[in-house]
Design a protein that fits this description.
homodimer, alpha+beta, Phosphoribosyl-aminoimidazole Synthetase, Chain A, domain 2, 2 domains, seven-stranded mixed beta sheet, four-stranded mixed beta sheet, 28% helix, 23% strand
């Protein structure tokens, strides 16, 4: 056997160079010594430019495929509670789960900037691999490109998830009906404020930690507790809860009423938002979901969320109403009512 | 109904700004007025953060899923014969097809640089939509992020393709056996030299056009003509034919012999390579495939390739041999024999 590589990749002091993206020997070495090792699974080991995958049982039993994708460009790459690698798994697993589907497989496309430290890349890839393992959703195929210094920003990761939704289950943003109940799985604003706290020399007295997490087991628990009663699931990421509710109101052609006092916000997030003049309703979350459920199952559904480690602070936050204007309105803590509009400015760029 | 947007997107003189990636109103507008309109299909119209998809018949009949992804960072974005948008469809459709699979669905993740002209984005998206339509493989879900000026390079597009390989069909880089025959579907080096010709003020006397194309119908024709006889399919993209053959030799644990005189190279590509001191064996292709087939079906397989519009110049270029060193060797036009090594330098960055 010929010796393919004389020198191993210098994962301590080395840097990404253009050769790592050229498709030749250096590319192969990066894939073998870093990506394949971290993500190792039987599908990646096939060693082709794609993966051949077994068909999940639900598909043979009348289920349907689900496909979702997300590009991840968060800055900074590391933040309290997570990093780009973990986020790239969680974000896409959650998009698949929000359709009621069981996530099965991930693809990952890396766009690296020349000069990026290989040690940092290793940290991100290993965090991503750990997140994929924890979620039980393997990265089965991938791709790496390199762009010149100044033409990227360290690392971008685009992931696509494939899953399967069981026969008969219909969940989607257009299915909310007047009388339905809104549940929220926990406090809002944690992710956005955690990332923001790392930027622009902001320092808060207390550490705010990102909520980044894979929500598919929470969704599974909810669906089991309230079969047939879950109409809409959505994770309020970019744009925050306020924008997510407006999207649903528009898709379903309904109005939504929420109760400010019922929406959990951590004190340190609230304080930081107040200090910066931000509204937690528009701050991104990466480990929370909104569930719109039939009022008949709302109690059971809420109990199921609260019984899960990722939903201990779940709350009933409002209801769906008939409204041709499709307004989202909020009863404020001070006894008033105001319209919650879409996010229109850009308070927090590159949050995910 | 409330009027959601007062002003339509300025697709003539407007530019991408950070708001287009914030997940709020501007993001929704970009998706609706550009992406959803160009890619329009029943799955995108579901309007969720992912798509629910019907299960293809092959899967119910013992087939397996295939998943492949590719990030596309080609520079410049527009080149003779194609652009980033078309390439993002072809590259991933081809990765799926090289496993013998029928490509079904694409996801697309866009990473845009602040300040990029919306008119150019529209051109790319419409070209991508046309390529997807021509291939019969719809973009069913997508995502858009925006990074600050100087943190990206116009547009990057990562695509993932899902397909299905019929029951019993086994194709992969590890399946070449001594005695098998190598077929190449056409001339090499066209894509890389077409992109290069647009860079660094190079001007050649004749125009070289990229071969970018979706190869799945060519694969289908080949598989139909030589059932059971196709062992390996691969598209020699980055790294070129030379690197692709080395990958296969390593995966299969075999040697490969090729005949330089049999490898089609267009005269203008050959002249440009000679002028620049490049070897066409290492120049990227985006519309060519290598097929390694059982020698018993080689004649039929070659005829099937030649009968297809994308394979008119197909040629038998060599054979697989037993070789514990897994060398790729080439009989040169001058009667010698030399080793064809992996690409080790980086002659052509950002070719795809």
């Amino acid at each position: 056997m010929k010796k393919d590589y004389v020198r191993p990749l210098d994962l301590r002091a080395g840097r990404v160079d253009m050769n790592h993206g050229a498709g030749g020997r250096a590319s192969a070495q990066l894939v073998e010594e870093l990506f394949a090792r971290a993500f190792d699974n039987e599908f990646l080991r096939q060693g082709n430019d794609g993966a051949v995958l077994p068909v999940p049982r639900e598909l043979l039993d009348g289920g349907r495929l689900v496909m979702a994708c997300d590009g991840h460009v968060v800055s900074p790459l590391f933040f309290p509670g997570g990093d780009l690698g973990a986020l790239a798994v969680h974000g896409t697993v959650n998009d698949v789960a929000m359709l009621g589907a069981r996530p099965l497989y991930l693809s990952a496309s890396f766009i690296l900037e020349e000069g990026f430290p290989l040690a940092d890349l290793k940290r991100l890839v290993e965090s991503m691999a750990a997140a994929a393992r924890d979620a039980g959703v393997p990265v089965v195929t991938g791709d790496t490109k390199v762009v010149e210094q100044g033409k990227g920003d360290g690392v971008f990761i685009a992931t696509t998830g494939v899953g399967v939704v069981p026969r008969g289950l219909e969940i989607g943003g257009a299915l909310a009906r007047p009388g339905d109940v809104l549940l929220l799985s926990g406090s809002i604003g944690d992710h956005g404020m955690a990332v923001l706290s790392q930027r622009e020399s902001l320092e808060f007295e207390t550490t705010i930690t990102s909520d980044t997490a894979a929500l598919h087991t929470l969704v599974a628990a909810l669906l089991e507790a309230a079969p047939g009663g879950v109409r809409v699931l959505r994770d309020p990421t970019r744009g925050g809860l306020g924008t997510t509710l407006n999207e649903i109101a528009r898709q379903s052609g309904v109005g939504i009423r929420i109760d400010e006092a019922a929406i959990p916000v951590k004190p340190q997030v609230e304080a930081a938002c107040e200090f910066l003049g931000l509204d937690p309703l528009y701050i991104a979350n990466e480990g929370k979901l909104v569930a719109i459920v039939d009022s008949a199952v709302a109690g059971r559904a809420l109990a199921a969320l609260r019984a899960h480690p990722l939903g201990t602070e779940a709350a009933r936050i409002g209801e769906v109403v008939a409204d041709p204007h499709r307004f989202v309105q909020m009863d404020t803590r001070f006894g008033g009512r105001r319209v919650v509009d879409w996010l229109s400015g850009e308070p927090l760029p590159r949050i995910c």
